[in-house]
Automatic annotation (TrEMBL):
GO terms for molecular function: nucleic acid binding. Transmembrane segments: none annotated. It comes from Glossina morsitans morsitans. This is Piwi domain-containing protein. InterPro entries: Piwi (IPR003165), RNaseH-like_sf (IPR012337), RNaseH_sf (IPR036397). Residues 1-128 form the Piwi domain.
Length: 142
């Protein structure tokens, strides 16, 4: 896997402290589920029965809707070197949906995914080149 190959290039003094999870996030899915003919509450996780047992996949409802049907987000963990149990990864993911600066509620995806989307959109649509290195520590894309 490309991620494993990239870790080979990390210096040995850094590697023992380097742990990560590589998660594929899918918002556009057709899965819906209900609790007593109602939308599930925010924070609801489904990680068995409708998921494949050989994969590390879970569905998370992180937001509430006032009208219509809430759509869960699919998370597929393809690499996990952190050693956290699955429930801790799910709780961390849910908590990360609360961390977006421009919205007081929860997002459908973790804030880091939304930030990455905003930055990619800005660079592709407006800047058309790599941003200045002077902006590396700024949230200019918000």
């Amino acid at each position: 896997m490309a991620v494993d190959n990239a870790l080979v290039e990390v210096p040995a003094r850094v590697l023992p402290r380097c742990s990560m999870a590589f998660i594929i996030v899918s918002k556009r899915i057709n899965t819906r589920y209900f609790v007593n003919k109602q939308n599930p509450v925010p924070g609801t996780v489904v990680n068995d029965v409708i998921t494949l047992p050989e994969r590390y996949v879970f569905f998370l409802v992180s937001q509430s809707v006032r009208q219509g049907t809430v759509s869960p987000t699919s998370y597929n963990v393809i690499l996990d070197t952190m050693g956290f149990p699955a429930d801790k990864i799910q709780i961390l993911t849910y908590k990360m949906t609360h961390l977006y600066y421009n919205w007081s509620g929860t997002l459908r995806v973790a804030a880091v995914c939304q930030y990455a989307h905003k930055l990619a959109f800005l660079v592709a649509e407006s800047i058309h080149r790599a941003p200045s290195a002077a902006l590396d520590r700024q949230l200019y894309f918000l």
